[in-house]
Structure formats: structure tokens, C-alpha cells
Amino acid sequence: MTTKTIDFSRFSSLRIGPVVEVALIENDIVPQGYTIVGSANNLLISPTPPPLMILSKQYDFIRIENNRLIIGAATPGGRVVSFCKKHNIAHFEYLSKLPGTLGGMVKMNAGLKEYEIFNHLVEIRTESGWISKEAIEYGYRKTSINTVIFEIAFELESGFSFERLEMFAQMRSNQPSQPSAGSCFKNPVDDYAGRLIEAVDLKGKRVGAMAFSEVHANFLVNTGGGSFEDAIYLIKEGQHRVLEKFGIELQCEVVILDRAHLT
């Protein structure tokens, strides 16, 4: 089995985590007992993570085939946008403001408001072969996918929109520039996690080098040298205060990887 040494304090978007030997997935062979990390854009990795694996560059590709857009699961979203711009392909403009690779985006049905990855998805390829969209349960920022994705097939439509590209840029203009894992909590039905965090006086709250951003309360940011323990403390404190004041159980959008508990 091929491995790769990754320093997650540099590799992950939250800039937290140890130096770990990570297994490489090659030729559709998935090591058993390992957790896939993708590009680590919505992960909080503990000092003692479970065994981890990542797709090799073999799965970083884009091609047009049988009137479909086929994208490897290790392909960065930014590369997809560039390809679609060059070939006048519609519906992928929002990826310009979403970090990460396609596999992770599909797994969590990533998106911006009503623009979601599943809107134009046709099927995915896993160890079990091709699985149609209809066979997958999915909703707001979640899916029933619990296996490694190798590649994804999307509907192919022409009409790249520079207007939508600008709209998505404006939608993300209020995001903090400091390292983060994106939105910390999922938005409850008919409400916003950022509003709730601010309402319980946690906006700007700092523990060690971790803080709920003063720019956007639902972003847990690393101000420099932040720790796993301080991040966990703030996440739990946010959930506790919101539950106590509003009776709402905030669900974590950040995935926590720790031997003690996989979230």
C-alpha cells in the first residue's frame, strides 16, 4: 500500500492536526478500516485520528463523454469552474466559492443556497460500480453516501453564466479570511446558525487561538496556532448555549475525526 506523509496543520483548511502517514487510494483499491479525508476542507482532525486515506491524483480529471460531464472525485472545484468557463458549460459557477474536491462536495451535497451539487448530478461511481442519483438519499448538506466516490457524472448543458459567477462572489464576500472549515453549524429550518451564535453572545468569542469569527459568527476560525481541544470547546459551548436559550440542537457541519468518536 502506497502512503503519503501529510501535515494537517498545513494541509487542512482549519490548520489543525498532526503529521500523519495517509494511505493513497489507487486503481480503485480502497484500504479497509480507513477514513477518507479528501482535501480536508471541512475537517477538524484530532492529535489521535483514526487511520486516514486520500484519493491519488489518478482521480483528478475532467472529461466530456456520452453527452455527460465526468469528473474525478479528487478534482478541485476551481478546476471544474475553469473547465466549464472554457467549454461554455452551465450550472457549476457556484463551485468558484466552495473549497475542496468533488468527492467531498458530493458526499455532503455542498452548495450555496438553492444551488447544490445534486441538482445536476446523474450518478456516481464507487467500489460497487455506478449508482444513480435516484438510489441515493440526499438533502440539505447531507447524503446517504458512506463509501468512497471515484468519479461523478453530471448533466451536460451549455451556457456558462458570468452573472451567476459574480453573484456567488458577492454571496461569499462576508466570509472571514482566517483559516476555517467553512460553516461550523448547519442552518436549522427557517433560521440561521450565525444569528443564533451571535444571539448567545459568542460572536468573536475566543478560546486560545480559536474563535467564532467577528466577521461571520458561524465561522470557527484559527487565529494562529489553534488547538483541537479549544475548537471542540467552542463547538460544544455554541451547541449548549443555543440549546439552552432557544431549544435548538445545532448540528455540526464540520466533521470531527478522532479515535474516540467519529462525527
Account of the 3D structure:
- The chain is of the alpha+beta class and 263 residues long.
- The chain has three domains: 3-56, no CATH class; 59-169, Uridine Diphospho-n-acetylenolpyruvylglucosamine Reductase, domain 3 (2-Layer Sandwich), CATH 3.30.465; 177-257, Uridine Diphospho-n-acetylenolpyruvylglucosamine Reductase, domain 1, CATH 3.90.78.10.
- It contains six helices and 19 strands.
- The strands form six sheets. It has a five-stranded antiparallel beta sheet. A four-stranded mixed beta sheet has the order 1-2-5-3. The protein has a four-stranded antiparallel beta sheet with strand order 15-18-17-16, with helices on one face.
- It is globular and about 55 Å long.
- The mean pLDDT is 93.
Which structural category do the helix and sheet elements fall into?
Answer: alpha+beta
Counted beta strands: 19
Low-confidence stretches: none
**How many DSSP helices?**
6
Strand proportion, as a percent range, falls in 25-35%
Can you give keywords for this protein?
263 residues; alpha+beta; Uridine Diphospho-n-acetylenolpyruvylglucosamine Reductase, domain 3; Uridine Diphospho-n-acetylenolpyruvylglucosamine Reductase, domain 1; 3 domains; 4-stranded mixed β-sheet; 22% helix
What is the secondary structure topology, with strand pairs?
Layout: E1 3-7, H1 8-11, E2 19-25, E3 35-36, E4 43-45, E5 52-55, E6 62-65, E7 68-72, H2 77-87, H3 102-107, E8 111-112, E9 115-116, E10 121-126, E11 129-132, E12 138-139, E13 142-143, E14 151-155, H4 162-171, E15 180-183, H5 193-199, E16 206-207, E17 210-212, E18 219-222, H6 228-246, E19 255-257
Parallel strand pairs: 2-5, 3-5, 4-19
Antiparallel strand pairs: 1-2, 6-7, 7-14, 8-9, 10-11, 10-14, 12-13, 15-18, 16-17, 17-18
